[in-house]
Amino acid sequence: MDLGVFLAVIAAAAMHAGWNAILKIRLDPFIAMVLVNAVCGVIALPFALWFGLPELHVWPWILASVVLHLCYYLTLTEAYRLADMGQVYPVARGSAPLMTTLVSLAVLGEPIDLQGFLGVLLIAVGIVTIAWRRSGQHFDPRALRLALICGVSITAYSLVDGLGARTAVNPHLYTSWLFVVDSLLIIAVALLWKGPAALRPAAAFIGPGFAGGAMSLAAYWICIWAMTKAPIGLVSAVRESSVLFGAVIAVVVLREPLRANRVAAAGLIVAGLVLIKLH
After folding, report:
1. Quick one: which of 10, 20, 103, 114 has the most CB atoms within 10 Å?
2. Considering just the CA atoms, what is the radius of gyration of the chain in Å?
3. pLDDT tens digits, one per residue of 19-44
4. Residue 206: which of 42, 86, 94, 71 has the closest Cα?
């Protein structure tokens, strides 16, 4: 992975953790997710119109991705309703890079050698370690199940978007239309499921929503571009270093407790990143 691509994905990881923290504002997590994604669609629309419509063979990838993203949104926001960000976020994100790498190796035949795989493994172990709880501390089993399902959806949409962007040739065209269609779907689901009245409280959080949407858009746009320049599994693993930034946000901003396991996990994740960068 080139240094420029590596640093870009690290920046995307920081922004990804930032917009996830936005979901913990004083607003229903799903409605906050709708707000963030609506902003993404608004920002992406001018770019989509500039690039023009994707070719027909690209649309199945976009449609598959938005369905998988919807599964991700629903499971993540419901898990956040049941448990702290510091628990849910590492489990959801930590399970994804290892699964993504294994699938990309077995199915796509992507060129990841032992050193790169060890780097991914260290990151995955480090991420899950952040969520470790001492005996007697409660982690709602429903939140755990939702976080794991969320991890599967992350794996699936990462692979779909990496392949879809490569199929489209222009990753920016693919990504802009992905965000537009994605925002339309989640707004439609919210209106049908929650009703218009449930969306009104979001109007009081336009500022944080715009910040979260801008970070979400930039973070994933960078990652999709990176997956056309480097193996999908490696990009996915580096992206999930966002849990380091998420842990800092959870402690400093959300006032969740700092535990020794988070410090140890940070060391594992950094070691994994070093192996991947030296790959």
Report:
1. 20
2. 18
3. 766 666 677 878 888 999 999 999 99
4. 42
- CB-based burial of residue 194 (10 Å sphere; 0-12 exposed, 13-18 middle, 19+ buried)? middle
pLDDT band at 258; cut points 50, 70, 90: low
Cα separation, 5 vs 223, whole angstroms: 9
| Burial of 147: CB neighbours in 10 Å, binned 0-12, 13-18, 19+ | buried
What pLDDT score does 86 carry? 66
Best-predicted range by mean pLDDT among 9-23, 100-114, 171-185, 264-278?
171-185
Rounded to whole angstroms, the Cα distance separating 216 from 210 reads 10
Question: By CB neighbour count within 10 A (0-12 exposed, 13-18 middle, 19+ buried), where does 138 fall?
Answer: exposed
Q: Which residue has the tokens 């030296």?
A: 278
The rounded distance, in Å, linking the Cα atoms of 38 and 180 is 8
Please state the domain extents for the chain: 3-277
Token pair, residue 257, equals 């407790």
Q: Which H, E and C letters describe 170-191, residue by residue?
A: CHHHHHHHHHHHHHHHHHHHHH
What pTM was computed for the model?
Answer: 0.84
